[in-house]
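re: ur question from earlier - yeah i can do the single chain one, its not a big deal. heres the input i used so u can compare w yours
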Amino acid sequence: MASSSSPTVEVVKEAIEKDGFYYYLDPTIGKQVDEFAKEGYPFKTEKGLGFIKHNTLDDKSLEKIDTSGLLEIPHKYLHKDNIEHTEVEMKDGALVILDDRLGFTIVQGFAITFCFMVEEELNKWAKMKLPNSLSLKKIAISMTSEKIGMNFEFPK
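and the output i got, formated as tokens:
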């Protein structure tokens, strides 16, 4: 299901239950991602953490959308007759919210993905090492809530 405006929780959940995904075309997101790519994907900087925060955590409509926690579908299982394939062109950018059991392939271009998972699963993942700076620590703290934690560490 596609839209050209920010999703409501109900619309997103309905689309994910029906189709396995929801997307909305957004050239503004496309431009932000293009600029971020030109800068070399500076995730470990103030600007990078700001990018993550702005495009995920600050969007309160996404806060209530949950998933099953399954991490990956082996690619060989995606080429069966009973699996429906949907191709979507997102020429100028889009936001995609999908059931994490959904398999996808990027045919052209690139995607920046953010993963949300339960704490038990998160504990199995390596932490992203960030430069030990007070400004980055403040941003990381501002990204944390009672529902969402961050997987960063600041080695000395």
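Residues 2-153 form one domain. not sure if urs matches, ping me
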